[in-house]
């Protein structure tokens, strides 16, 4: 059984009838916001910015590139961390962990494929025909590759769970380091190959992740030295002619601890922690819907008019677009659930845990795509305080 973080380092928040470790939800919230910001920069700002703001666009591009070794590696570490006990359970008890994200992947592969076959402005990895669709069912190349990877990584981690964790992590890291040398053209397929190391770290070495999140005692929890080390490492790596996979892997050695420490420190920040935790419990609808919002914005009057060449507007543009994409995605999710479209976000059928708890009276409809970082609620239900709650089902860190 995993020992939870001390209360000072890991505030908990009530939700779904159990306690959630708040820093995990905060980390998920940070990660999904960074994902949306990245797409707002490389897709929307790249199309909207006129020539006078090329330097601003390049600056934003440098910022989001510098965060690449943090956002997705951190997400996968968290995914593996919450699956750490499940990888040691019998297949009959945990097969939904693999089937549910793959089901959600297929649903959104088809829906987004249909949408982006009509919408052609947003730069996207589009599925062009039935042949490419068949390939994507086997090896994801589109923007919903994360869900595919969650299913694949859980199966791999479970198959390898009986081996020494050090050997598994060493082999996974070697594959990650070599992945950019294999001639893979699609970035998302490269990403599927590259990121298993991080899921394996969380699933097979959860104590390491917990120690990284705990950090030293104190208000800033050792955050500033880690941040300084990350900046210094990023500057050094930029000067070295390394393959991109080696560059990302080495940078993530500091980037992942940085993300964990930022989340742990923010988890003690009061209102910001509650807001980020709230977002972190709703990452699935943001993940699958935000590119639809970004594409739609290209066909509407601009949120931030950049034609005058205002540097301030150029700096604010990705932030405004990110906020709108997140809010509209969550609003669309709210509407879809109330129309009964829960099948868009969760595999039909009751999880085994829910069946074991029956016939307890409950109005909850659980909707976890993976019982990992991408979780989403499809209820309404009532919390123990009698308040309306929309938080997703919790997977206890030490369960």
Automatic annotation (TrEMBL):
<keyword id="KW-1003">Cell membrane</keyword>
<feature type="transmembrane region" description="Helical">
    <location>
        <begin position="163"/>
        <end position="184"/>
    </location>
</feature>
<feature type="transmembrane region" description="Helical">
    <location>
        <begin position="190"/>
        <end position="208"/>
    </location>
</feature>
<keyword id="KW-0812">Transmembrane</keyword>
<protein>
    <submittedName>
        <fullName>Membrane protein YcfT</fullName>
    </submittedName>
</protein>
<dbReference type="Pfam" id="PF01757">
    <property type="entry name" value="Acyl_transf_3"/>
</dbReference>
<feature type="domain" description="Acyltransferase 3">
    <location>
        <begin position="22"/>
        <end position="333"/>
    </location>
</feature>
<comment type="similarity">
    <text>Belongs to the acyltransferase 3 family.</text>
</comment>
<feature type="transmembrane region" description="Helical">
    <location>
        <begin position="220"/>
        <end position="238"/>
    </location>
</feature>
<feature type="transmembrane region" description="Helical">
    <location>
        <begin position="316"/>
        <end position="337"/>
    </location>
</feature>
<keyword id="KW-0472">Membrane</keyword>
<feature type="compositionally biased region" description="Polar residues">
    <location>
        <begin position="365"/>
        <end position="399"/>
    </location>
</feature>
<dbReference type="InterPro" id="IPR002656">
    <property type="entry name" value="Acyl_transf_3_dom"/>
</dbReference>
<feature type="transmembrane region" description="Helical">
    <location>
        <begin position="99"/>
        <end position="118"/>
    </location>
</feature>
<feature type="transmembrane region" description="Helical">
    <location>
        <begin position="284"/>
        <end position="304"/>
    </location>
</feature>
<feature type="transmembrane region" description="Helical">
    <location>
        <begin position="244"/>
        <end position="263"/>
    </location>
</feature>
<keyword id="KW-1133">Transmembrane helix</keyword>
<feature type="region of interest" description="Disordered">
    <location>
        <begin position="354"/>
        <end position="399"/>
    </location>
</feature>
<feature type="transmembrane region" description="Helical">
    <location>
        <begin position="138"/>
        <end position="156"/>
    </location>
</feature>
């Amino acid at each position: 059984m995993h020992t939870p973080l001390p209360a000072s380092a890991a505030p908990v928040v009530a939700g779904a009838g159990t306690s959630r470790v708040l820093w995990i939800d905060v980390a998920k919230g940070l990660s999904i916001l960074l994902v949306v910001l990245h797409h707002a920069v490389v897709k929307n700002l790249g199309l909207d910015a006129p020539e006078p703001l090329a330097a601003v666009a390049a600056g934003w591009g440098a910022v989001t590139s510098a965060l690449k070794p943090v956002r997705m590696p951190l997400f996968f570490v968290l995914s593996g961390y919450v699956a750490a006990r499940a990888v040691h359970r019998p297949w009959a008890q945990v097969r939904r962990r693999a089937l549910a994200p793959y089901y959600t992947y297929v649903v959104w592969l088809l829906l987004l494929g249909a949408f982006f076959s009509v919408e052609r402005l947003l730069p996207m990895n589009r599925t062009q025909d039935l042949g490419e669709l068949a390939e994507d069912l086997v090896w994801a190349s589109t923007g919903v590759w994360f869900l595919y990877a969650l299913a694949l990584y859980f199966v791999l981690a479970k198959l390898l769970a009986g081996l020494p964790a050090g050997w598994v992590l060493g082999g996974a890291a070697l594959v990650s380091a070599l992945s950019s040398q294999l001639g893979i053209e699609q970035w998302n397929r490269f990403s599927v190959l590259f990121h298993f190391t991080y899921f394996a770290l969380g699933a097979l070495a959860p104590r390491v992740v917990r120690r990284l999140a705990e950090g030293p005692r104190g208000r800033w929890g050792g955050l500033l030295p880690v941040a300084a080390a990350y900046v210094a490492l990023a500057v050094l790596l930029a000067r070295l002619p390394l393959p991109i996979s080696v560059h990302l892997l080495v940078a993530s050695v500091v980037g992942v601890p940085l993300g964990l420490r930022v989340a742990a420190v923010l988890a003690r920040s009061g209102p910001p922690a509650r807001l980020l935790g709230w977002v972190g419990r709703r990452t699935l609808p943001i993940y699958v819907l935000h590119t639809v919002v970004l594409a739609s914005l290209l066909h509407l009057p601009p949120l931030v008019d950049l034609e005058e060449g205002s540097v301030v507007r150029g700096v604010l543009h990705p932030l405004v677009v990110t906020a709108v994409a997140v809010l509209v995605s969550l609003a669309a999710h709210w509407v879809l659930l109330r129309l009964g479209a829960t099948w868009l976000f969760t595999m039909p059928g009751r999880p085994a845990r829910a069946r074991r708890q029956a016939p307890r009276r409950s109005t909850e409809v659980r909707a976890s795509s993976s019982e990992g970082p991408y979780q989403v609620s499809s209820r309404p239900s009532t919390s123990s305080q009698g308040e309306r709650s929309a938080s997703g089902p919790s997977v206890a860190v030490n369960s």
